[in-house]
Amino acid sequence: xxxxxxxxxxxxxxxxxxxxxxxxxxxxxxxxxxxxxxxxxxxxxxxxxxxxxxxxxxxxxxxxxxxxxxxxxxxxxxxxxxxxxxxxxxxxxxxxxxxxxxxxxxxxxxxxxxxxxxx
Length: 119
Ligand SMILES: [Cu+2]
Prior knowledge:
The protein is mainly beta and 119 residues long. The protein has a single domain (3-18, 33-118), classed as Cupredoxins -  blue copper proteins (Immunoglobulin-like). 8% of the residues lie in helices and 39% in strands. The chain contains one helix and ten strands, in the order αββββββββββ. It has a six-stranded mixed beta sheet, with no helix packed on it. Strands 3-2-5-8 form a four-stranded mixed beta sheet, with no helix packed on it. The structure holds copper (II) ion (CU). Copper (II) ion binds next to loops. Copper (II) ion is lined by residues 46, 71, 106, 108-109, 112.
């Protein structure tokens, strides 16, 4: 059964800090190289895919929950409207005009997090 292995894998990475975007010793394979230029993020297998994206200022990002179980998208930056729990389909998030790297997480699943770089 694959699920417990994934949970253990995610738990190991949950202690790496929250806001830094400069991982020192990555313990989970992340999207290689630079963030992916896209406004679409899938939620599957308790992960955001791609995990790191880059968008233009004020972009609208679409999060597609393909897992059929509840997730949320909770940004640390309170100026961004987070998405409460939902179980299937799309939700959108408007990014700020200010450039920067904005981290977010699913508060249900430790280690399920990602970043949006606005530039
Ligand atoms: Cu989740």
